[in-house]
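User: My notes are a mess, but here's the protein and zinc ion's SMILES. Can you give me a structure?
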Amino acid sequence: MPEAESTGVRRLAGKCFCGAVHYEVDDKFVYAMNCHCSNCRRTTGSAFKPIAGIEREKLRLTAGGDRLLVFGDMDGNDTHCGQCGSLLFSVVREGAFVHVAMGTLIDDPGIRPGAHIFVGSKAPWFTITDDLPQYDGHFTG
Ligand SMILES: [Zn+2]
Ligand SMILES: [Zn+2]
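Assistant: No problem, the inputs look usable. Here's the predicted complex:
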């Protein structure tokens, strides 16, 4: 498991499908949830997207920072690998936070998704089978 040198904050590694882009993020996520909105479904091709939120400065690109495909602007975007297209994270909340696409983490984070959000627009072919709380729209914890 990766350990920070001096701060004692555990750092998690993540990467895209092809390996061109690597990042590291402090294991200090503020929240994590499964988003069922149509945007998250389309950007991932999945029933929902597990996201973990953290202050933007706590995520650093460690490789491939010049190979990104950024869809959006600097303060609100989906950041993909420009080579394989993996969605790595989204910059949200006027640039203050990033939502890490949890499927791109290599290491096991200390947080687990705690809710389903935007269940009001979830895919009709997908059934939620766990007992986590469900919200029709946003949930700000
Ligand atoms: Zn890639
Ligand atoms: Zn979403």
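DSSP finds one helix and ten strands in the chain.
User: Great, I'll file this with my notes.
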